[in-house]
Amino acid sequence: MKPVDFDYVAPPVLEEAVAVLASAGEDGRVLAGGQSLIPLLNLRLVRPRLLVDLRRLTGLAGVRAAGDGVAIGAMTRQADAETAPLVRERAPLLAAALAHVGHPAIRFRGTVGGSLAHADPLAEVPAAALALDATLTLTGPDGVRRVAAEDFFQGFLATAAAPGEILTEIEIPACAGRGWAFVEFSRRHGDFALAGAAVVLALQDGRLGPASRIVVLGSADRCHRARAAEARLHGEPPTASVLDAAAAVADAGLEPASDVHGSAEYRRHLVRTMTARALGLAAARLAAP
Amino acid sequence: MSVTGGAAVAGRHAIAITVNDVPRRATVAARTSLLDCLREEWALTGTHAGCEHGVCGACTVLLDGRPARACLTLAVQADGARVTTIEGLAEGDRLHPVQEGFWECHGLQCGFCTPGMVLTAVHLLETNPAPTEIEIREALAGNLCMCTGYQNIVAAVAWAAARLRERSATP
């Protein structure tokens, strides 16, 4: 339960962190809060030669208004983002999702950016980012670029970040007036979920518009937009039968595995059930803003 | 490659951490956890090494006032921080009210999980002086106990909450 030896730097400025990370190539890893990376190090599932700790980059921590939306620095601790008034007001879905991340002791250390960059398929923050149409800012040797959450998550623990690139900020556009919900099911409080759903409902002239999102987690190699279910919503009023029809196909295209925690059919059932619950909660928030 | 941040000498790093109000220094490998640093460099063995991958909560300490897994924190990450361990709670022979609660309510059997439980509870009561039973259970959910069945631990924290409120009411 001890990591293999590695080098460690904690650069005081971002440019230096990028340069050091880029020069290490595949052997370098970014250390943010460490709540996902350090277990992997302790179990020796990863063996980087160099860790580049972002802890001295204090400019990467904090929450600010971005238009009518909100921007969250990558090094913002999950507990701080969860309780930040701007996040609760402007991205309540993210605040709700953060409350499901591990336990308080994990969230005091774990960062918003770390969870996004780690891209665990069961993690809550990526699912919320995808449902909220977030944009992620990456800084690398070739400069700064912005990537839609949709394009950022590319597979199991895989993202669009190139070697040498550091995730610095996540921006969530305004979503006032929309219904939202995040629900998940786990065997034990604080554990990774067996299944979950992050839902945003957006009305346009009394009907559900194209900004409505259904993101499910737990049965794919990444958080997954349930497009077949979303299609059942578009252009329809947010009635119980419409929501039920969407939830009924929330598992379309998923191929969950059977394992000790549950059979494939059970996982499909959970995805549909979590989606149904999230849709119901989101619709209630639409009706009573 | 320019390497800065922390005085790195042949892969070892000089760190300074204030533990229970005592400034301490050590020179450690980057891979050394805060847990191992406390136990092996400074002989503070009250912080217990359980699962060492963040699941059990036995190694919970307060890092700059908030609970953290010492096994999921590298010692180099805590450079410059303030850490409170179980050794820092009592004042001489006078137990911290949370420790007293565990004593009064039989909140421990083997005692392995207790330091982590106590520090988690100390932080809970600092931020929420009158928690409900559900809030106590929620706060302690990341700390596993294989002996007690948790009933007496929850009772101990409620006892401590009442004692602390009593104390703050009588100056």
CATH topology of the largest domain in chain A: Uridine Diphospho-n-acetylenolpyruvylglucosamine Reductase, domain 3
Overall number of strands of chain B:
6
Highest CATH level, the class of the largest domain in chain B? Alpha Beta
CATH architecture of the largest domain in chain A: 2-Layer Sandwich
Please provide a written account of the structure.
The complex is a heterodimer of chains A (289) and B (171). With 289 residues, chain A is an alpha+beta fold. Chain A has helices at residues 14-24, 37-42, 78-83, 85-90, 92-98, 104-107, 112-118, 124-131, 149-152, 227-233, 240-248, 264-287; strands at residues 7-9, 28-31, 50-53, 63-66, 69-73, 135-140, 143-148, 153-155, 158-159, 166-172, 179-185, 195-201, 203-204, 207-208, 213-217, 224-225. In chain A, a hairpin with a 2-residue loop joins strand 6 and strand 7 (143-148). In chain A, helix 10 (227-233) packs antiparallel against helix 11 (240-248). The model of chain A has no long low-confidence stretch (mean pLDDT 95). By secondary structure, chain B is an alpha+beta fold. Chain B has 2 domains: 8-88, Ubiquitin-like (UB roll), CATH 3.10.20; 97-169, Orthogonal Bundle (DNA polymerase, domain 1). In chain B, strands 1, 2, 3, 4, 5 and 6 form a 6-stranded mixed β-sheet that branches. The chains are: A alpha+beta (289), B alpha+beta (171). The A-B interface holds A 1-12, 16, 19-20, 23-24, 31, 34-35, 38-39, 41-43, 51, 53, 55-56, 79, 102-106, 108-109, 189-190 and B 1-6, 8, 11, 13, 29-31, 33, 36, 51-54, 57, 60, 63, 66-69, 71-74, 76-77, 79, 120, 138-139, 141-142.
